Amino acid sequence: MTLPSADTSDVIVVGGGAAGLSLAHRLLETRSATVTVIEPPDGPLRPAGRTWCYWHAGVDGLEEVVGASWDVVRVYGADGRPVAVEPAPFTYRMVRSTDFERLVHGHLARSEGGRVLRATAESVHSVDGGAEVRCRLPEGGTRTLHARHVFDSRPLTAMPPARTQLLQHFRGWFVRTETERFDPAVADLMDFRVPQPAHGLAFGYVLPLAPDRALVEYTEFSAGALTTEAYETALGHYCRDILRLGAFTVDDTEQGVIPMTDARFPRRAGAAVFRIGTAGGSTRPATGYTFAASQRQSGAIAAALRDGHGRVPAPYGRRTLAMDAILLRALDTGRINGPDFFTDLFRHVPAERLLRFLDGTTSIREEWGIGLRTPVRPMLLTAVELPFLPRRSRPVPRRGESNR
Question: Does the model's pTM come out above 0.90?
Answer without folding.
Answer: yes
